[in-house]
Amino acid sequence: MSETLQLALLLIPCLVIAIVFHEVAHGWAALALGDPTAKERRRLTLNPIRHVDPVGTLLVPGALALFGGPVFGWAKPVPVNFNRLRNPRLGMMLVAAAGPATNLLLATLGAVALGLYAGTLVAPPAGVSEYVFAGLQLFILINGFLALFNLLPIPPFDGSHIVEGMLPRSLAAQYAKLRNVGMLLFVALIAANWAFPDAGIIEKVVGPPVEWLQGWFFALAEWVAGAS
């Protein structure tokens, strides 16, 4: 139980920051491109209370972490009205990309902070808190995973909006119909991953690029440590 509590104390803040910044980035991008819906509904705030979904932000990722699954979650989606964007087709893609891009930026900042704070990735040296050390590593991993997971071309993930914007209009209209069954596809993916853990469906799709990305961020942290 002590290890479970320690994991929760590290996981929850990292996940809340990653998800809240992800959602707010969508709203700010939409505002910059002509849609003030998120601003009108007071969602352009970093106050987690206005964004946290008890199930998607806390319960689901907490359970996945405890049972050894891939850690991800979601917040209350920031409202975006694509029809209010100055260029709806391009704007839809840019607004969707803003969330994952923000997670990559957060992971980069986490890598820089890890390099400056710890000076090593092997083990926390004397005078360095092992919880801060582990928390920064977890922060990098969570943001990298959320960025890539959200780029999956499955509605309602950000990747689906990017793909839709890239397709010819006739194909985009057909692809958009997947939104009606997007959550069912998502639930089926999670259920299949849970029912067949040895198959590692999610891990095999997202795992390799996440590991590559994590290696890049750790290399950045090592460079920062050596340069500082």
TrEMBL record:
Topology class, membrane: Multi-pass membrane protein
Database matches in InterPro entries: Metallopeptidase_M50B, Peptidase_M50, Rip2-like
Coiled-coil positions: none
Protein name: Peptidase M50
Listed cofactors: Zn(2+)
Superkingdom as given in the UniProt entry: Bacteria
Domain Peptidase M50, first and last residues per copy: 134-187
Location of the protein in the cell: Cell membrane
Transmembrane annotation, as ranges: 58-78, 90-119, 131-152, 178-196
UniProt entry keywords in alphabetical sequence: Cell membrane, Hydrolase, Membrane, Metal-binding, Metalloprotease, Protease, Transmembrane, Transmembrane helix, Zinc
Family as reported in the entry's similarity comment: Belongs to the peptidase M50B family.
